[in-house]
Specification:
2 copies of one chain form a homodimer. Chain A has 361 residues and is α/β, with parallel strands linked by helices. The first copy, chain A, has helices spanning 9-16, 20-28, 35-48, 55-62, 76-80, 83-97, 118-121, 138-146, 168-182, 214-226, 241-253, 266-278, 312-327, and strands at 67-72, 102-107, 126-129, 150-153, 162-165, 187-191, 201-203, 232-235, 260-263, 288-290, 307-310, 334-336, 339-342. Strand 2 (102-107) of chain A pairs antiparallel with strand 2 (102-107) of chain B. The structure holds a DNA duplex (30 and 30 nucleotides).
Chain lengths: 361, 361
DNA sequence: TCCTGAATTCGAAACGTTTCGAGACCAGAC
DNA sequence: GTCTGGTCTCGAAACGTTTCGAATTCAGGA
């Protein structure tokens, strides 16, 4: 089979005995075309094995590519191993797909990365930034330069025109107050990664990185709002179970172990619970644990995590809706996705000091 | 700020006092340009806030879009909740990204789907099909029509020019033989979903769907190769823990419960183990369980799954390498990714009949 | 019979690049 | 002083559509 040139609209037009404009009309479905003419064109297309108008040419002429870029963590798996993020992306893909829009995965540009990041050079009509560092996110500047409309999730207030966010500070504060009401005094926290290349480690309030991932910062600020200081802060290397276990071990080995741990994600909380079990502690009697996100963690049974649940699907749909509105020339502004405190079985009043396992007093 | 037209290469050329071709040369980095001229052009571009050549125009003229489509399950999350798939996709994105290629997510076209699926209309240079149903996969036909080079993972032999696959039949056979050698007679199996919209249910060898997802079929065929028939077959609704639990419950409630379960994925195996624990059974003494994929399941501790491990990262890299070779005009052919039997602690000889819990005899 | 207006179809002009071949210029060899 | 070869720059021709306004056709009313 000779590797021949693909047929173009001109070929189809010639074969059908009509003009190129008419063929275009048939394929775009826009103008009015006689059933007769339409049939001629369709037959010609079939005869030539014409696969439809070239997307490249269509994009150049019409100015629309039908592609929406989605900026994720440079290591894709870092972003998507989190089931919540996946749900969000899934909803975005589905919702945009209904309008014929495709999603292009864009690893977040890094200073050390390639000369010309995809975000700068790829064709697209709009973009979604799923992961915004604190104010200096370079993606936002690139998008501005290119004049591309964009939506950012969990971005710092004022950093971008269209935001879709949750009020994670208030939600975390609510969890902290629960623990305070139960009588807890020594409350530790396990945070999300604060930077792109985080490792699991102790932090103090004086030792926080400056461009800091927004959700980590917001959820940490809840302590100040609740008027307490965490007795220990461990930054997790990733929002996954393994780093959660590690963080839990670190906290329990600490000189004065906490009676409660506020975890910035459910996966981290799950890890902390595994570490507690490992140390022979009973959750929640020896240690109260809270999560964030509201995932299903069936392997945690019979415990159910006390957490703030967010609905990934509606978050994704809200993002997609905002993108569509931008493409239609609208200005969606700021969108707030509600959280719901889900009562689980992982918090309880602290055990009287004298009854705690000796090594934890 | 007046919403003004974006500057083009012609504007930059005029501002710099050179020709359009020269500006193009500067941006493409190809031809030889005096340092002086280059500086003039770069200054002009900066002055006009020119964001670089239009990807649309570049794509039309050069014929290359820099985009590789990746066909995933229609419900994105179905594909990507599986950590292995995610690793593969991650490696593909990273490896292609190094060459400046972006990954466009393409939900698999469904009969009921939109009029014109993205796979038919989106701009791209090549495609990867991560999920091939048995022979009649519609994606492959569309790609052929469009004349796009493509790579398919786990496709039936002969269905496509470039395949990247594992020998899952042999690997599963190896696991089955282990169990036979240990003395097992009643071996059940929990399969991957066989169709796009599967539910967790019993199946028999006479009752298999015809277009059937290839890995499910291959791994099931291992029983015939090993010369035994599974004593029960449960098709899982998805390759996740929850359907695995459900499948495990169904098998254990069966009149003559198995002494071993061959699960077509680690997540399903994890679920079966949870169901066994729930029923008061000891794994592996009361029930042997094998998995497939080689994931890390920290919550399974202290057990370690006996499984066939595949390296998602090298699989992804192999796929990306094949795509690059296709784009360079090569013909990569068939690529086989090796599997490695990982000895865990979840299989043992069956307990003598008389010692088994009464309800399981 | 002639005129009006709606329904179709058509021609031509973009859209913003890349690429090809040719021209201009300059230094060094004869 | 002329010729040769290399380096840099340029003009013009695509790439394959969409879209705009104009041309054509045809039916129905005056």
């Amino acid at each position: 089979m000779a590797r021949t040139r693909r047929p173009t609209m001109a070929d189809v037009a010639a074969h059908a005995g009509v003009s190129v404009s008419t063929v275009s009309l048939v394929f775009s479905g826009a103008g009015s075309v006689t059933a007769d003419t339409r049939a001629k064109v369709e037959n010609a297309a079939a005869a030539l094995d014409y696969a439809g108008p070239s997307p490249q040419a269509r994009a150049l002429r019409s100015g629309r590519t039908g592609i929406v870029g989605v900026v994720v963590h440079e290591r894709l798996a870092r972003s998507l191993r989190d089931p919540l993020q996946l749900r969000i992306l899934d909803a975005v893909v589905e919702e945009l797909g209904e309008r014929g829009l495709g999603v292009l995965l864009l690893p977040s540009p890094t200073p050390t990365g390639s000369e010309r990041p995809l975000l700068e050079s790829a064709a697209m009509d709009a973009a979604v930034v799923l992961r915004v560092r604190d104010h200096d996110e370079p993606s936002l500047e690139i998008l501005r330069r290119r004049g591309l409309p964009h939506v950012a999730m969990e971005a710092p207030p004022g950093s971008v025109a269209t935001r879709v966010s949750i009020d994670d500070t208030s939600a975390t504060e609510e969890l902290i107050r629960r623990l305070l009401d139960l009588g807890h005094k020594r409350i530790a926290t396990v945070t999300l990664p604060m930077t792109d290349r985080a490792t699991t480690r102790f932090r103090t309030l004086d030792d926080l990185p400056d461009p800091m991932w927004t959700p980590a910062r917001h959820r940490l600020e809840a302590f100040a709002r609740a008027g307490v200081e965490p007795c220990a802060i461990v930054e997790a290397g990733a929002s996954m179970v393994e780093p959660g276990i590690e963080a839990g071990r670190m906290l329990l080995a600490h000189n004065s172990a906490p009676t409660a741990v506020v975890c910035q994600s459910d996966l981290l909380a799950g890890g902390v619970i595994v570490a507690a079990r490992e140390a022979g502690l009973d959750v929640p009697r020896d240690l109260s644990v809270t999560g964030f996100d509201g995932l299903d963690l069936p392997w945690l049974a019979p415990l159910a995590l006390t957490t703030q649940a967010q609905d990934g699907e509606s978050k994704g749909r809200a993002i997609a809706a905002a993108v569509k509105e931008l493409l239609d020339g609208g200005t969606p502004g700021e969108i707030d996705i509600p959280l719901e405190l889900r009562e689980g079985t992982t918090i309880a009043p602290p055990r009287p000091e004298t009854l705690r396992p000796a090594h934890l007093r």
